[in-house]
Structures
1.
Amino acid sequence: MTLLSRATSSVRVRVTVVASLFVLVVTAVGSVVVVLVIGHSLSQGLIDSAGQDAAAIDAQLGRGVTPAAAATTGRNDVLVQLIDNSGAVVASDQPAQLEEPLRTTAGVTGTVVVPGLVDTYTVVARRASASSQPVALIVVGRSTEQRDNTRAEMARALGIAVPLVVLALGVIVWISVGRALRPVEVMREQADQITATHLPDRLAVPAGSDEIPRLAHTLNEMLDRIDDGQRLQRQFVSDASHELRSPLAVIRQTAEVARAHPDRIGVDQLADDVLHEGGRLEALVGALLLLARLEGHPALHTEPVDLDDIVLVEVARLRDAGARVALDVSAVSAGQTRGSAVLLGQVVSNLLANAVRHASTTVRVGLHQTGQHVELLVDDDGAGVPPEKQDAIFERFVRLDEARTRDEGGSGLGLAIVRSIVLAVGGSVTVGTAPQGGARFTVLLPTEAD
């Protein structure tokens, strides 16, 4: 980027140039208007003065003063002509230069050049009264020298003052904008030093309560969110790596033992162990992919879903698989929501699997529609969830009984998937205490009408 392009791209330069040009245009136009107005006022003053002089001469003629005496004023800035009815000059204060009439009718001439005289004149002609005979028209001229000099001096003064004012304003704007943007430049330099390895660093917040300190606060809050997101991402990668490593280690260990001691582990047992651990890997990878897709916030395809049908299908599937506890669906009634039938099926499946895994003897499922919500309840009579862990249980890889759930195939992702799906369809999920003393999971979903 060239020096010129960098300068024109600077906010400081652009603001200074725009402000200076605006003031220059406004003051230049204002100066022209002032000069014109003052010039007009001075010209009108000349006309009024010449008219008064003509009236005074008319009064003298009416009192019997001769035309020659009345035309003599003794002033260099005044011309006088007295004209009869035939248009001839009867008398004049400068006969050599005023042989020809300056006007032959009453009226005003703004600028008249008189041969032999340096100055120009504003001429006023008025008809003489009847008592002023033989004079019919009185012509008086006033020199425009003083008016022209005043107008020229004012134009010169404004021509000097306007650039000085614009220059002073430009300097003030340049300094003011520079001082106002200095904290922004400091924040830019600090932000340039923040990298993924130095994300905990934060921007210095300038003093005050205007837009710049608020911008610093907002940027720091954004960095906090990014830091939290990266921390969760690192934790997720660490946990996922740990979870994926466990079944792989079992497969590797079993294979090594089978190779070293073929008499201890037969082909059937090796195949069973590999299939079991491979199933765990497949389920874990599928859960991770589902979470990644949900957290990408895709536009989910929604349709009317009969949630009671999904509940009954999932309960029947568990019963057919030989669930070790009783499944009570006597409290399930009709309830229709809107969402993805596949994903909502995953919600019900995960909640039931979690309840069966922790229940002692019975899992009870309830479903009913109230107002604008469909409420799904899944209760078990197990140990329950301690209050201090009721929020954390929906995080990834959180397990209350690490050893037991690992042996029974729990990955710690089922409830995280439940929360992600429920939030994606506009619902909520919480955990509390069931009447039987175990855990109660409550899912609220919008009705189909919503």
2.
Amino acid sequence: MTTTTFPPVAPAAVSEFERSALFADLKNSAYEHLLSRIEELGAEFGRWSQAAIAQFVTLELDSYIRLHAVPVNEAEAQLVAHALTRELTGLGPLQPLLEDPRVEDILINGSEVVYVSRGGVLQREPSHFKDDEHVLRIVRRILAPLGRRLDESSPMVDARLPEGGRINVIIAPLAIDGPSVSIRKFRKDPLTPKELVRLGTFNEDICRILEMAVQARCNILVSGGTSSGKTSLLNALAHFIPSSERIVTIEDTAELSLNHTHVVRLESRPGSFDGSGHVSIRDLLINSLRMRPDRIIVGEVRSGEVLELLQAMNTGHDGSMGTIHASSPRECLYRAEMLAGFAGFQGSEVSLRRQIANAVDFIVQIGRLSNGRRRLLSLTEVTGMTDNVISMQELYRYEPQIGADGQEIDNWTSMGISPHSPKLLSWWRAQQQTGGMR
């Protein structure tokens, strides 16, 4: 089998043609032609390699263009051939987005609407699917190796991608305007604390405090909104854990990728269509206490597992960490209290707050700004109880300044307060004596 060689195309021309109606029409009509040819080939097609399929697509497309006198040049035909090959061997319009390292999130709202997040900013993509069945065909190709079911009896799926990432799908009758697909991509090499400092997530002074807090086995909650960078920050904090310690991570969908020598990764399991076989984060957390962990890291605290995590922090598992959805450090404590109440905490409100105050040492608030940048907004220490209310003190606060050109300049203001925790007190005093902190 031979193939036609096409010359390279300038990026501007590529972008313009791929957005054109001619590109979409030719790809769709040629795709139907290819499906007819594949039906004729039958089982033989299933044994072909990806290279053989690419050659087949190029030859058939060349024949189709000549037969129907489609006004495209060779370079444009190559773009269509690549797109069709992705349809048959890869994931169609999703393939280039999944391969693009700048893409963080892919959001599909029906076959015609695709949004992509790059650098924390959402933008609509020109690529789209032929119809809703095309979306479902690609999604089922993703889910097939994962053993997950997607149909009317099970119209919602949340799964971890093999190459690292997470996919959530909702279809009819729950999704009214077509299949809704949300794909979150994860970095193959998680960000380190030094990289976060370089990217401006926080400054070096805060980095030193976080390093000492982790090494001194302080219990830390990372608080923030959706896509604010909680998991990336948690990954970075784990870099400070000594290599001699045993870590157990517990998540709904495994996102954490710790650069550590001794990690046990646990992932919850959804129930089958009749509800059997369900294993929750809370079940895993209870079991992890029997696994001799030095530290427990919960990917996201969102339900009754907050009770077990608080008990673990209070009973010899210092240095544990987790993330929680909340808009401020105070709201983080309120949410932990609310989740514990929903989980059936039997004690009084005061005893619950006392348990939270004794368990949590620091709350790290992170947020995504309007320009897409992710910044540590507050570093707050939990200091105990005062008049039946959990007391806190803020050590650092994000207060950007406006430069001469009108642009915001990152700035973190120190509140000039020393840590209350005895775990950090001796270190803080040594820093002040040597002038290491401002």
